């Protein structure tokens, strides 16, 4: 899952949400000097990613993209899922996406000192370009995938993936609709444990 899904699945505006968002910038063991709530968010992020990567429905989407994008198929699938979460937001959250996004941006501004330094340019760009709302448009998807392609070590071709989304839109949308409720239930069980 990408930024929007991780923020949505956090559920509360607290340091665990910060951890869930910043987890991709924390590799290996989680350092003991990281505050407990942030560590909880990092663990939640890793659980979400593990569940997502191993889910048979998600594997179908990645398999569909793999011949062209190879190991970048996972990244593209995550971005596609944020698109569908944004376009179907009202089914999952009572608050309009625009309001949710504005609250997220304000929260991240207030908590900026907790973020890793190398994450700050990403957060600033997210706010400036309103990524969370723009995931809901094909233009926003194209920008996201193009910018993500610029950050890869090798030529990924991700800048062309929006064409795959358009071509097989119903396939990816149905895939998301089948998978996402399972993920929501999984996260609810984790939080209840």
In words, what does this structure look like?
The structure is a single chain. The chain has 193 residues and is an all-alpha fold. Helices cover 70% and strands 0% of the residues. The chain is built from eleven helices and no strands. It has helices at 3-10, 15-22, 36-54, 56-69, 73-87, 97-110, 120-128, 131-134, 138-150, 161-167, 169-192. It comes from Xanthocytophaga flava. This is ACP phosphodiesterase. Keywords: Hydrolase, Lipid biosynthesis, Lipid metabolism. Pfam families: ACP_PD.
Task: Looking at this protein, list some descriptive labels.
193 residues; mainly alpha; 70% helix
- The shape, in one word, is globular
The largest β sheet comes out as: none
Please count the beta strands (DSSP E, at least 2 residues each): 0
- Note the run of SSEs as H and E: HHHHHHHHHHH
**Percentage of β-strand residues:** under 5%
- Ends apart, CA distance between termini: 22 Å
Low-confidence stretches: none
Multimer state: single chain
Total count of helical runs of at least 4 residues: 11
Class inferred from helices and paired strands: mainly alpha
Could you estimate the helical fraction of the residues in percent? Answer: 55-70%
Spatial extent as radius of gyration:
16 Å
Q: What integer is the average pLDDT?
A: 94
């Amino acid at each position: 899952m990408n930024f929007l899904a991780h923020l949505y699945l956090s559920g509360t505006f607290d340091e665990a949400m910060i951890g869930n968002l910043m987890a991709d910038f924390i590799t290996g063991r989680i350092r003991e000097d990281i505050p407990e709530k942030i560590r909880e968010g990092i663990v939640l992020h890793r659980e979400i990613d593990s569940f997502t990567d191993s889910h048979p429905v998600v594997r179908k989407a990645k398999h569909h993209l793999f011949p062209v994008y190879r190991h970048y198929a996972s990244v593209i699938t995550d971005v596609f899922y944020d698109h569908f979460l944004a376009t179907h937001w009202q089914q999952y959250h009572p608050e309009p996406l625009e309001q949710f996004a504005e609250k997220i941006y304000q929260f991240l501004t207030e908590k900026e000192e907790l973020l890793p330094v190398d994450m700050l340019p990403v957060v600033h760009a997210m706010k400036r370009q309103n990524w969370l709302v723009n995931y809901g448009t094909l233009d926003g998807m194209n920008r996201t995938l193009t910018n993500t392609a610029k950050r890869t070590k090798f030529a990924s071709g991700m800048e062309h993936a929006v064409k795959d989304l358009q071509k097989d839109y119903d396939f990816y949308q149905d895939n998301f609709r089948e998978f996402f409720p399972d993920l929501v239930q999984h996260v609810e069980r984790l939080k209840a444990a």
